[in-house]
């Protein structure tokens, strides 16, 4: 089958289109004929080797973390799905590879595709929707009447996190370019801050939750807008020792992660704020919950561009440019 892969960690290098063996289907796996695959910042971070300490992938490595398609084979012990089911998923770490014609995924990481979405729309959702759910529901325990600051509202995670936060009953503030304001208001944003001309630190105060997706300087500034007892969840680091534990990394990696996050954890503790680093995980069960919200019209995917499969490198470059409003997807069908 055809697949886009890398043979070494390289931030600037392109993915190679190659012929690779068809996936091995284990007893608890489903084989998915891929119709579309979403692109994420995580793809770029994996490609450049930013997580090689905790995710020591072997080469050649097929890229891609989001998928929508049709099941063509099920393992002997699969109970939840059958051949012909339309599904979507974020495959587990260690088993990524959605920039390909097929992929084998553990059934626990798969969910039925929302009936009201196209394959491209469905492929845009798993990673960002799971990230928003795990950040706001699991980590921050966001509740009705609380306030949340979601950075980069027009990005892939931001567009979904805003909708989920409004569904949970929270007041939502976000940063974006002014050209995105109308669209973000429709998604549910209450307070819109132009990151080019305004400083969120001078506008926001006493927020319950911050979802950080920017650099360390922005993260440190975010501590100043959170009330004591509030929570900052960071998607971009610095990672804590919990990540090393989650990934069963060697003992020295746990020490390294602890040192990397020591500064921000101390600053947060001094202000009485909870700091959490989130490296989202695959979950078919949570995707099923999110499917219900999609089919109810509560969550709607935001897709900026759909590229043909053979243009996957162009799609990755566009996603990395950070000009996309929502998600970028590659289509195989």
Describe the secondary-structure layout.
Layout: E1 2-6, E2 16-19, E3 29-38, H1 41-47, E4 61-62, E5 67-74, E6 86-89, E7 102-106, E8 110-112, H2 119-123, H3 126-139, E9 147-150, H4 156-167, E10 171-176, H5 181-187, E11 191-194, E12 207-212, H6 216-222, E13 226-234, H7 241-246, H8 251-270, E14 274-277, H9 284-295, E15 303-308, H10 312-320, E16 327-331
Parallel strand pairs: 9-10, 9-12, 10-11, 12-13, 13-14, 15-16
Antiparallel strand pairs: 1-2, 1-4, 3-5, 3-7, 3-16, 5-6, 6-8
Question: What is the tally of helical segments?
Answer: 10
The average pLDDT is 96
Helix/sheet category: alpha/beta
CATH architecture of the largest domain: Alpha-Beta Complex
Any idea of the CATH topology of the largest domain?
A: Quinone Oxidoreductase, Chain A, domain 1
Structural domains: how many = 2
Report on this model:
It is a single chain. The chain is α/β, with parallel strands linked by helices and 333 residues long. It has helices spanning 41-47, 119-123, 126-139, 156-167, 181-187, 216-222, 241-246, 251-270, 284-295, 312-320, and strands spanning 2-6, 16-19, 29-38, 61-62, 67-74, 86-89, 102-106, 110-112, 147-150, 171-176, 191-194, 207-212, 226-234, 274-277, 303-308, 327-331. The protein starts with a strand and ends with a strand. 30% of the residues lie in helices and 26% in strands. The strands form 3 sheets. Strands 3, 5, 6, 7, 8, 15 and 16 form a 7-stranded mixed β-sheet that branches. A 6-stranded parallel β-sheet has the order 11-10-9-12-13-14, sandwiched between helices. Strands 2-1-4 form a 3-stranded antiparallel β-sheet, with no helix packed on it. Strand 9 (147-150), helix 4 (156-167) and strand 10 (171-176) form a beta-alpha-beta unit. It contains 10 helices and 16 strands. It has 2 domains: 2-124 and 302-331, Medium-chain alcohol dehydrogenases, catalytic domain (Quinone Oxidoreductase, Chain A, domain 1), CATH 3.90.180; 127-277, NAD(P)-binding Rossmann-like Domain (Rossmann fold).
């Amino acid at each position: 089958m055809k697949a886009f892969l890398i043979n070494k960690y390289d931030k600037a290098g392109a993915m190679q289109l190659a012929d690779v063996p068809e996936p091995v289907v284990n007893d608890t796996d489903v084989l998915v004929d891929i119709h579309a695959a979403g692109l994420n910042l995580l793809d770029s971070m994996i490609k450049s080797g930013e997580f090689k300490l905790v995710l020591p992938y072997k080469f050649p490595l097929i890229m891609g973390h989001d998928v929508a398609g049709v099941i063509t084979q099920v393992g002997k012990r699969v109970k939840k799905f059958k051949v012909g089911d339309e599904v979507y998923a974020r495959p587990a770490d260690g088993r990524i590879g959605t920039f390909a014609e097929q992929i084998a995924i553990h059934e626990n990481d798969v969910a039925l595709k929302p009936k009201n979405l196209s394959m491209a729309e469905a492929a845009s959702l798993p990673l960002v929707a799971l990230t928003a759910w795990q950040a706001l529901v699991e980590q921050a325990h966001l509740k009705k009447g609380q306030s949340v600051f979601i950075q980069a509202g027009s990005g892939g995670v931001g567009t979904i996190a805003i909708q989920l936060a409004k569904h949970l009953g929270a007041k939502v503030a976000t940063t974006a370019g002014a050209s995105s304001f109308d669209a973000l208001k429709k998604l549910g944003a209450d307070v819109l801050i132009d990151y080019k001309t305004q400083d969120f630190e001078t506008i926001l105060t006493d927020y319950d939750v911050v979802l950080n997706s920017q650099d360390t300087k922005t993260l440190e500034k975010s501590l100043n807008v959170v009330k004591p007892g509030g929570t900052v969840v960071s998607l971009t680091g610095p990672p804590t020792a919990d990540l090393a534990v989650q990934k069963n990394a060697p003992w020295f990696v746990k020490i390294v992660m602890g040192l990397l996050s020591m500064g921000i954890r101390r600053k947060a503790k001094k202000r009485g704020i909870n700091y959490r680093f989130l490296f989202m995980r695959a979950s078919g069960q949570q995707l099923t919950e999110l499917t219900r919200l999609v089919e109810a019209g509560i969550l709607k995917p935001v897709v900026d561009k759909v590229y043909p499969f053979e243009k996957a490198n162009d799609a990755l470059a566009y996603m990395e440019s950070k000009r996309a409003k929502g998600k970028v997807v590659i289509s195989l069908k």
